Fold:
Amino acid sequence: MSFVEYSDFIQDGDVAIVYLSHDSMMPVKVQQGAQTQTRYGVIRHSTDLIGQRYGSKVTCSKGGWVQVLHPTPELWTVSLPHRTQILYTTDIATITMMLELKPGSVVCESGTGSGSLSHAILRTIAPTGHLHTVEFHQQRAEKVAMEFKEHRVDHLVTVRNQDVCKDGFGVTGVADAVFLDIPRPWDAVKHAKAAMKKQGGRVCSFSPCIEQVQRTCEFLADQGFEEINTLEILLRVHDIRTVSLALPDFGPDPSAQTPPDANEEAPPPTSAPNHTSVTLKTTTPPREIPGHTGYLTFATKPRT
Amino acid sequence: MADNGDEDSQYKIKEGDYVVLKRGDIYKAMQIQPRKKVIFEKQWFFLDNAVDHLYSTTFEIMSGGTLQPKKPKDTASSNDAKEAGTDNRNIVDDGKSQKLTRDDIETFKEQGLKDQEIIQQLIENSTTFRDKTEYAQAKYIKKKKKKYENTVTILKPSCRILAMMYHGREPGKICHLRYDTLAQMLTLANIHAGSKVLVFDTCAGLVLGAVMERMGGYGSVIQMYPGGGPVRAGVESFGFPAHFHDMLHEFPICHVNPLLAGTLDTTAKDPNADEKQSNKATEEEQNQPKAEQQGSPEERSMETNAGDDAGQEQEKKEKEKRKEAKAQEKKVKLEEKRKKLAAAAALLESRNADGLVIASRFHPCPVLMGLLKFLSPSRPFVVYSQYKEPLIECYTKLREHGGTVNLRLTDTWLRHYQVLPNRTHPVLLMSGGGGYLLSGTTVAMDRPKPAGSQRVEEPAPKRLKLTDTEG
Structure:
């Protein structure tokens, strides 16, 4: 198991994702002799997990069962322990494409936060790229570095505990892409530029407030960035439901055309119970959805 | 950081490169070919002069269609704020505010005036420009600039650029797959280097190319294709290095059932398959899915040779000789194709693919149900459809069939913003929809078990017999 490489079987030391339902998943550190409590009962790692195939069904002590999945950055995003507000897959997917990330890309990121985006970046830039991630909160930096190790991606990432607005990314002239998710992104624009390759690259800033966007765009333009483009992306989930719609009864309709022979035998069909409603498969939106995450501002750094 | 000239060589435009032309928000994919006339945005020119310049260079189109790198100075705006009105109360749309006529402007163009100079002329001859507000003036200049611009930027292709290009220029060719939807697909399917991914793509090969870019030449991609041959025009536009194509395999879906049943014979020659293979060969060589030219390139070059009237007899013999050589070549080619088919079949037979991406004009349901069998458990898949209803059907089928979790039907809402001091707001027009996605994760299929051990949340799969011995 690694976050950048699939394996077929669960091994001691892996991180597996226990799938309870589509809105309830939990990461589990697989350890010989350890146990994990779920609402369906206990999972015994030695017997229930180690040696099993990823994707198998595991029966818990109370008789209920769960599925054990191979970790992916996307499953991690919905199950990771939150230490900060995190980026979700919809924004992450857009950021990944718009920053033109691919195997071999060198990326700078700040702040690291809970590492939701970091894992997705690492997945995409492996096996030859590198992520330089800067987090000013010491405990968070330490914690995420430990997670990278557990997820076997630590060879692809350097975690720095410093303030990007003051100290920059700790590297110059190496990055193909820079991502900023900090309260004052405009203060880091210069550092972003310095971190990037002289041949140019792409930058993205994520900000919840439009005032931050306004200011960041001004700074980006001042620093010579081109193709500055701000967008917002939202996920719309369609829950699939079978619904039944009642048909109204307008009483007998004498003008209705009915086959002459059926006319005598069948009484007015409108009263028959099996004709009073129609059943169909359709989708409904969730009652409430995240209506705003943040604005994504992208720009291109030209050759300098 | 020591930079030398060699480091730049990979950033230089070379003959034969696949590039993307850009002006404003308009993109067009091209190959750099000597003395080839290119038409872009109603202007024609030659790309020869771009060779050896760096990617992302902006060129000016000079008379005679030659390109000249634009000097950076030119981009600086010469219009400093002079006079501006406070509102538009005095501006009347009587069509008389511009003193210059269409002919005047054409004359300027013929005289070789630059776009900047033409705009300056337009401003000077506009009676209302001075009364416009500062913002309206900026808007006016921007609009005119767009109209009279004669520059083109040459970019290195990327998934971002090509996805935006296809969506803007030819959405019909890619089943109206919006770029952000493609971005979701690549992420939801966990596409990454070193994995084995199945792709079913009738979106001109854009999705396939995007998957290949994300895999960086590591791992294998198996293109499952319908009909005579795989469509890959979009893949060419990415301009991948040669070794990327080593990871690309192809398998015709008409062979899926025989493969699953174990009756696909890749050792002996199947005349039917051979015919299809040769069709494919020609199609591949033309790089154009729509070109329905019959015959191989050799044949075509022969025809041009036959036009020469000298030495008809000789020609005839040559012809026969070549025919023989061609037949031999064809044999070798078919053998190669057969080997390739066998290799793709071997990759599929182990049924341990790591990802499945479907984006096609076909009904997604049979495609998904047919190809899901090739995935390992605990692997993601994603299906695109322009329409929601077929994906509802897929969802229903998957729930009946079992073997998947985490099913979700989604689409994304995308809005661009104009960000300007005191004028920030959403862009007035936005895309009405970018298509729908059904995504999920495979899990090991249930073995028949006594009822009662199932949770209510996940109904028992109705067709339990469809386990891994299916087929």
Summary: Chain A has a mean pLDDT of 93. Chain A has two domains: 9-71, 75-234+291-301.
